[in-house]
Amino acid sequence: MSTEDDLNIRIAEALQVSSVKEDLHHDTHAVHPHQILTIPEDGIHSGRQQQNTSNNTDMLLTQDRCTLIRKLRKVYCLLDQSVKTVNSAYGVQNLTQISSCLACIVVETYGIAVNLHGLSNALNGDQRILNVVHISLWTGLMVWRIVGISYSCEMVIQEARRTQRLVTKLQMLSLSASSGVQEELQLFGEQLAGSPLHYSAAGFFTLDLSLLKSIVGAVTTYLVILIQFSLADTNVQLL
User: Fold this and answer.
1) pLDDT, tens only, 196-239
2) I want to staple 207 with a disulfide (CB 3.0 to 4.6 A). Which of 155, 191, 199, 221 is the partner?
3) What would the DSSP string read from start to end of 158-186?
4) Chain centroid to CA 187: how far?
5) What pairs with residue 200 in β-bridges?
């Protein structure tokens, strides 16, 4: 299985096989003992050899799978510790950078609004357009910083959630209880649920794509307030 779609197909097939087995189980109980066919001894002997060979192969594959899941658990533990280290080392820096970028975006967006709507009569047309271009480039740089931080953090969080979703789907497959794979998957699922990954700015807010919605709302609110004050000052000067 190389993709999640393959896993979904395997889960659907496992559910169908389990339903067919249940039907056959009910049909077997309904068959009369005299209707059961007698299998020759040679067929039984060859069947046992094939079964032993398949059991040995399945045992080796099961051991490899258990080892792989244990390695994945260790890797996730190291990743979780790395995320905590990044939060503690760069939390204050992320808070300062996001706050400064937010303040710059508010001020620069207000400057663009002032130049476009002619709230300031100190500049002529050409100089006003040049200021709008400069301010827009600087505002785009601030927005790019915030989007870059939020998007990179969101991708790590989404991959962790995808891993948890895949582990949950793997637990739905019909695996032997004695193989140990089901137990390893259960432990891995508990580990993923107990220590979810998240980035934060010194604990004040979470760094993900939801931060962009909050920033857009804050910029819009402050921009409306500043423009209202500017219009009020302009009306007072005209009076």
Assistant:
1) 899 999 889 999 999 999 999 999 999 999 888 877 766 665 55
2) 199
3) HHHHHHHHHHHHHTTS---GGGSHHHHHH
4) 20
5) 206
Distance of alpha carbon 225 from alpha carbon 228, whole angstroms? 5
Q: What is the pTM of this model?
A: 0.70
Cα(143)–Cα(146) distance, rounded to whole angstroms? 5
Q: Is 219 within the bounds of a domain?
A: yes
Query: What mean pLDDT, rounded, does the chain reach?
Result: 77
Neighbours of 98 (CB within 10 A): 20
Structure tokens at 123: 């500049």
Instruction: Please provide the DSSP assignment of 8-20 as one string.
Output: HHHHHHHHHHHHH
Sign of the dihedral through C-alpha 200, 206, 209, 215? negative
Domain that holds residue 165: 40-238
Q: Which two tokens stand for residue 78?
A: 């190291």
In a domain, 17, yes or no: no
Number of structural domains the chain divides into = 1
Residue 14 belongs to some domain of the structure: no
- CB contact at 8 A, 180 and 66: yes
Residue 190, amino acid: E
In a domain, 27, yes or no: no
Give the separation between CA 123 and CA 136, rounded to whole angstroms: 17
Could you tell me if 159 and 177 are in contact, meaning their C-beta atoms sit under 8 angstroms apart?
no
Q: State residue 51 phi and psi, 5-degree precision.
A: -70, -40
